[in-house]
Amino acid sequence: MRVFLDLAWYFKQERKKYTAGILILMAVSALTLIPPYVVGIIVDAITENRVTSAFLWRWLAVLAAIGVSSYILRYIWRIFIFGASIKLARQLRDQLYRHYLNMSFGFYQRRRTGDLMAHATNDIRAVEQTAGAGVLTLVDSVTMGGFVIAAMAFLISWELTLIALIPMPLMAYLTSRYGTMLHQRFKGAQEAFSDLNNKVQESMSGIRVTKAFGMEEKDQEDFRYRSEEVVKKNEAVARVDALFDPTISLVVGSSYLLTVVFGSVYVVSGDMTIGQLTSFTVYLGLLIWPMLAFGWFFNIVERGRASYDRIRGLLKESPDVQEAEKARAAKPEGDISVSLEKAVYPGTEEGLHHVHFHVPRGSTVGIAGRTGSGKSTLLRLLMRDMDPQEGFVMVDGTRLEEYRLDALRGAGALVPQDHFLFSQTIRENLLFASPDAGEREMKIAAEAAGIHNDIQAMPDGYETFVGERGVTLSGGQKQRLSIARALLKNPEMLFIDDALSAVDAETEAHVLAGLKKARRGRTTFITSHRMSTISHADLIIVLDDGWMTEKGTHEELMQSEGWYKWMHQAQQLSGRSEVE
Amino acid sequence: MDASGTAAFRTFGGGVKVQSLEYLKIPLKQKDTVRRLIRYMIPHRRMLLISFLLLAGGTASEIAGPLLVQHFIDNHLTERYFPLEPLLALGGFYLFLYLSSAVMNYYQSLFFQKTSLAIVREIRNDVFQSVESLGMSFFDRFNNGAIISRITNDTEQIKELYITVLAAFVQNIFFIIGVFAAMFYLSPELALWCLAVMPVLYLLIAVYHRYSSIFYAEMSEKLSGLNSRLNESIQGMPVIQQFQQERRMIDTFSRENKAHYKAWMKTMKLDGLLLRPAVDLLSIAALMAVLGFFGYQSMNGPVEIGVLYAFVNYLDRMFEPVNQIMQRLSMFQQSIVSGGRVFRLMEHEEPPPKAEPKTMKQLNGSLSFEHVSFSYDGRTSVLDDVSFSVKKGEMLAVAGPTGSGKSTIINLIERFYAPDRGTIRFDAEPLEAVPEKVLRRDVGLVLQDSFIFSGSILDNIRMYAGEADEKEVRRAAEITGADLFIQKLPDGYHHQLGERGTSLSAGEKQLLSITRTVLRKPKILILDEATASVDTESEGQIQRALESMREHMTLVVIAHRLSTIKKADTIIVLKNGSILEKGTHESLLKQKGLYEAMYSLQKMKEKADREEARRT
User: What is the CATH number of the domain that holds B469?
Assistant: First the structure.
């Protein structure tokens, strides 16, 4: 029930729809009471043999009028109430999506994609149910149930009403008990299914190992076992689930029996007519739905509450990186100073320590180091995807924190390691950041990134569809596409995160030359495993386990007998073997 | 590429067939899907028959209830005739009917669900098995996510078909037939009148089915578009934020969200027009017909009130099943599509390379390549006339830059792909003659990407080799040196690993997967860049492990690090799919080629490492 309070803001927002919807719903409930009454009147007239044509037509016309008006009213309340609840789903989905777009790196580290998706799908669905079916079942069970009982008690016989209702509390009790049992078992079934899901996931990603070991049969055996578990858990659900209908029909049956037995007594004693008894039993039939609705209501509202709590919890999270008051709106342009004493991920010691360097505007900075040495972390700090605990990054003498976030983002462009492309055409992907860029600019950027010729060679050229439905681009092509996309934005600061790893040496040289030309006067940061990618940089920084171990130009670093020199020579050699 | 639903084959010069997998995305036709769904029901025909009988019994007793009341009203209440015993019997019979109907309905519903679950389990197991029997080439080309979703989500949707749709259809159709039978028993004339409702109902269902399948398909298409956009946005968030495209993304999302909202509203309105409200209107019309019929009859003669009672009661009950059936029509449609996708995948044929196994107990351990050439796509040559051989107990090393064809050699040895030309021999037998079991048991593989699954360390090493006891596992781990780090973990060998072994370092994972292979005592052990991502310390361990394993097995090692392969009996250096140099460590050094250059570099690194160690 509390979920209705939590959703009060929405009911207030849509109060016209809800008020009108609920009033109409109540009117429909009232209208449903009339046909059984008419049945009683006609049956009595028939027994007393006083049916005339006019009499019959009059009552049939009443029935027809009720039928038609109920049809119209039922249609209208659906538009109001279900329409409002569907709108709520849309509103919440938009809200969540906006929220996701505002969240920073840390949030996405904590939350898994599947979880974030579940919020926007299943949870929204459950809240929508609460605002639609939940309202309907509540209103219907209260008004309809109340009306029917009132009609039975006042129009026919309150004594018989009480007698007929005797088995009903039993039904309410049993169904709510089944509900609790079902809840537990349902959870088990969901878990088993989830387990099966993980099994398939692992089997498919590990298929090479499984096949090399000839373990297919054992793997299938394991799958069958989990598949069997799903069946067992679902059978447990079925055992309870199958109880609902028989219980209800049994209770209703005994209610009918009580009604007919005691009703007959009243008929014999003259307190009641046969027509009244007939309409009483029809009323009794009308009572089944409100009883069921009441059970469903709790079910729906319970789920809605859990889901809405989850959604609210997510919406409450605020981004890790906050904008300062009175932040500078000017674009950050100029020399960059990095002075990081400590910048670690929350709750760990992983991150960067003691990294200091200065870059004049327009330089190219190469960042080298093993996997996990902190290269991407440094880029994150430069882009202000996270803030350091001690130290700062300054552009033009002003700390990043003092710039407005949109100014910062406007000045930078990232080419991520995992070359993310949208399932759209190549053109749409390239123009992602600069939708207004012209054809010529786009091709220049593609040329600079060394991908133009590849695109030209495809049958559909720039209109080629990327992703599952389209052609599969090679890793290197994807990387160069994302470089072109970033170049097209022409940012003050370009961050290339190991995005040339899948490109062969010849193409790399081409891309590097293109970059050099395109990036004149603007600052570029490149991280790489491959020394040839960064050897031309104005400044090279070597990171090891989060510490800066070497710093200088290529020539300087080749003088010292460090990791850089070794790596450079090692790769030169294997590079030579490629050319030979 | 090919969207007509048939498989497209392209044949290249080398005789390699490359089949487009596009057609797998199109579900099987409805008719074929239904036929297969029915085929799965056949083994359960006994259980299904029992369920149907129970269903018939349960429905019949439920329908008989009002008949008893009718009898009571007409023969006793109107006549004011109340003999005690027959009445008690009547009441008792009524109660008995309801009780037995409840019991029968319970078991009917339970059996139905059980059978459905069993059928879905079989479909699931079948599709999993048929997918796993496909050749490696399939997995190298088809999207993993799509396979997973077919095995789990689509089969789940089929479950809905059996449990909800089938049971509801059968039960409700049964109920309607039963009600009509009862009505005909009571008054054939009136029943005939009521039968007039049927064409109207049929029309209603047909119209609803027609439009709902369009509207619901539109809605679910919009929803899946919305969800995939959401998914993509979450994954591409750094790009979106860096390029400041939030505004535009929100606009597009809102637009699609609105389109989905509109589609949803359309289905809601359609439901409102043609589902419950319409059926309720129809039921009032039927009530009017019954009342009018009896009313007119009463003007001409006496009427049995009990019959009227029963008719009114039946009408009340008859329309609920109609509602139930109609509500499930759209679900039916979705399930058929899902089923079509599953069966399409199940029937895909892409077997691993052909083998004509001879009877053979085990491999001896020698291996040779004779003029082997291979290409994945039939165009780009990956291996070109490669020949080498390694004798039992020897160590062969393969060196060369990335993309030179080293891993392809393994794909061929493992019989994941068949060579286009040339022969691979184990001992004297060609690879095709080796039985699958022998090949998998006697050739052990350690991959570059160590695959760790969730479970304990012990489970990961055993990997279904359940017969190996902990002692054997420990011994294997001692040989590879994995024992050292395992001992340090909480719970040791029983330490639980998360998905993909996230809590271990790359080197530790690699040691685990080497141990896993060593435990199986292969005759030939292949290591594919197994030392690429491990630190110097672990590499030393692996090297020592290789030393001690050499006594027991033939080794084929592919490595960047020369320290790992220095002691090999034969080293081949690959470049662009051909052998560039071949010899022992010493002879290659004398050759002063690529190997020699790599080796001097190796020494330089050792020196740099030593100096680094001195500095810190």
Answer: 3.40.50.300
Are B136 and B167 in a shared domain? yes
Lowest mean pLDDT among A260-269, B459-468, B603-612: B603-612
Is the domain of B342 the same as that of B385? Answer: no
What's the rounded mean pLDDT across residues B474-500? 80
| Minimum distance, in Å, between the CA of residue B77 and any CA atom of chain A | 7
* CATH architecture type of domain A2-316: Up-down Bundle (1.20)
Longest dimension (CA), chain A: 120
CA triple B85-B90-B96, angle to 5 deg: 125
> Averaged over B244-268, what is the pLDDT?
91
Contact list, A208 vs chain B (CB under 8 Å): 136, 139, 416, 447, 451
Q: Cβ neighbours of residue B145 under 8 Å, at least 6 residues apart?
A: none
Please judge whether B152 and A200 are an interchain contact, meaning their C-beta atoms are less than 8 angstroms apart.
Answer: yes
* Among candidate residues B459, B452, B449, the one with its CA nearest the CA of residue B519: B459
Is B4 an 8 Å CB contact of chain A? Answer: no
Angstrom distance (rounded) from CA B176 to CA B319 = 8
Q: Three-state DSSP class for B465?
A: coil
B388 in a structural domain: yes
Would you call B277 exposed, middle or buried from its count of C-beta atoms within 10 A (0-12, 13-18, 19+)? buried
Mean pLDDT, residues A457-466 taken together: 83
State chain B's mean pLDDT as an integer.
82
Chain A closest-CA separation from residue B105 CA (Å): 6
Give yes or no for B234 touching A (CB within 8 A).
yes
Same domain assignment for residues B384 and B324: no
B610 near A CB under 8 A: no
Say what the pLDDT of residue B253 is: 92
B8 in any annotated domain:
no
Q: What is the pLDDT of residue B2?
A: 34
The stretch A10-35 carries a mean pLDDT of 94
Q: What is the pLDDT of residue B16?
A: 40
Could you report the per-residue pLDDT of B34-52, keeping only the tens digit for each? 999 999 999 999 999 999 8
Q: Which residue of A has its CA nearest to B289?
A: A60
Please check whether residues B380 and B259 belong to one and the same domain: no
Evaluate whether A228 touches A272 at the Cβ level (below 8 Å): no
Same structural domain, B336 and B383: no
- A371 falls in which pLDDT band (50, 70, 90)? low
| pTM recorded for the entire structure | 0.72
**Per-domain residue ranges for chain A?**
2-316, 336-579
Query: What range does the domain containing B296 cover?
Result: 23-346
Judgement on whether residues B287 and B380 belong to the same structural domain of the protein: no
pLDDT higher than 70, residue B499: no
Give the full edge-to-edge strand order of the sheet including B367-375: B381-390, B367-375, B421-426, B429-430
Q: In terms of domains, do B445 and B493 share one?
A: yes
Domain closes at, from B346, B378, B399? B346
pLDDT above 80 (res A205): no
pLDDT at B560: 67
| Level-2 CATH architecture, domain A336-579 | 3-Layer(aba) Sandwich (3.40)
A464/A77 Cα distance (integer angstroms): 48
Q: What is the ipTM of this complex?
A: 0.79
Instruction: Supply the CATH number for residue B297's domain.
Output: 1.20.1560.10
DSSP conformation letters of B266-299? HHHHHHHHHSHHHHHHHHHHHHHHHHHHHHHHHH
Residues B7-21 pLDDT 10s: 333 333 333 445 677
Asked if B336 and B372 sit in the same domain, the reply is: no
| Domain edge (last residue) among B346, B378, B394 | B346
Tokens of A310: 């989850």
Total count of domains within chain B: 2
Q: How confident is the model at residue B502 (pLDDT cuts 50, 70, 90)?
A: low
Q: H or E element: which one contains B203? A: helix B197-235
